[in-house]
């Protein structure tokens, strides 16, 4: 089990119930600590549901039940505005500079497992910021997305 901390981000919408249909993966570029500072600053208007440090430590920033502000102008499976229906899970660091660590992947799976079962998720509801905001965002590095996607398929199966 990886360490898990909680810092409430004001950058969310608690008034609309979150649909939790799947997950948009991100990387932060900046460090874990810098990410927490940024996301708890109300002037910044950005947040993830959770961010994962290179050592696997997770920080919950917005409860799953609330809409976090991680994807901005985006669309997935024919629907605009991913924040309303997709959770945002982010890896601290820059996947163009360094690959995801084994601890980050293991911690992400620890976060995903209970949610996967509870929400009845399927692999085709997993995506990343680059794919939901093409030309505007570049996270994750496609090679790291491919590695993560393959690990998800191994763990959770390829069925849709
Ligand atoms: Zn992103």
Quick structural gist:
This protein has 160 residues and is of the alpha/beta class. It has 4 helices and 10 strands; from the N terminus they run E-E-E-H-E-E-E-E-E-E-H-E-H-H.
Cofactors, ions, other ligands: zinc ion
Rounded radius of gyration (Å): 14 Å
> Quick one: how many beta strands?
10
Summarize model confidence as the mean pLDDT: 96
Shape: globular
Q: What CATH architecture do you see?
A: 3-Layer(aba) Sandwich
Low-confidence stretches: none
Q: State the end-to-end distance.
A: 28 Å
Number of domains: 1
Strand content: 15-25%
What does this structure look like?
The chain is an alpha/beta fold and 160 residues long. The protein has a single domain (4-156), classed as Lysozyme-like. Helix content is 28%, strand content 20%. The chain contains four helices and ten strands, in the order E-E-E-H-E-E-E-E-E-E-H-E-H-H. It has a six-stranded mixed beta sheet with strand order 1-5-4-9-3-10, with helices on both faces. Zinc ion binds next to loops. Zinc ion (ZN) is lined by residues 26, 129, 137, 139.
Descriptive keywords:
single chain; 10 strands; two-stranded antiparallel sheet; 4 helices; alpha/beta; Lysozyme-like; globular; binds zinc ion; 160 residues
